[in-house]
Amino acid sequence: MRAFLVFDSYADSYEVSGVISELKAISGVKSVEALERVKGEVPRYCLAFDIQDDVAEETGAKLMEVRNKYSSYISNVVWGAYRKIG
Asked: How far apart are alpha carbons 81 and 75 in whole angstroms?
């Protein structure tokens, strides 16, 4: 399963990417990518997660805890989880 957390931040790119090691340590997270907007009308940052399907619900809850921990640094937050269909 893939999950995406898209947001704007008062932190810079270095600080945003610095959180990756904390996110990778969450059980069920197979990988994390930090992406920064180049063009478009979307928030500046995107964290893309590859999550184990069998523990996706628990892993998602833990990711939301981390999101809440940094809530004073981020705004315009949207997130979603997707499964592969093709």
From this structure: 19
What CATH number is given to the structural domain containing 33?
Answer: 3.30.70.100
Which domain range does residue 32 map to?
2-82
What is the CA 18 to chain-centroid distance, rounded?
13
Q: How confident is the model at residue 83 (pLDDT cuts 50, 70, 90)?
A: confident
Could you tell me the two tokens for 25?
Answer: 């340590």
* HEC letters along 7-44: EEECCCHHHHHCCHHHHHCCCCEEEEEEEECCCCCCCC
- The pLDDT tens digits of the residues spanning 7-21 come to 999 889 999 999 999
Tell me the pTM.
0.89
Q: What gap in Å lies between CA 36 and CA 85, rounded to an integer?
A: 26
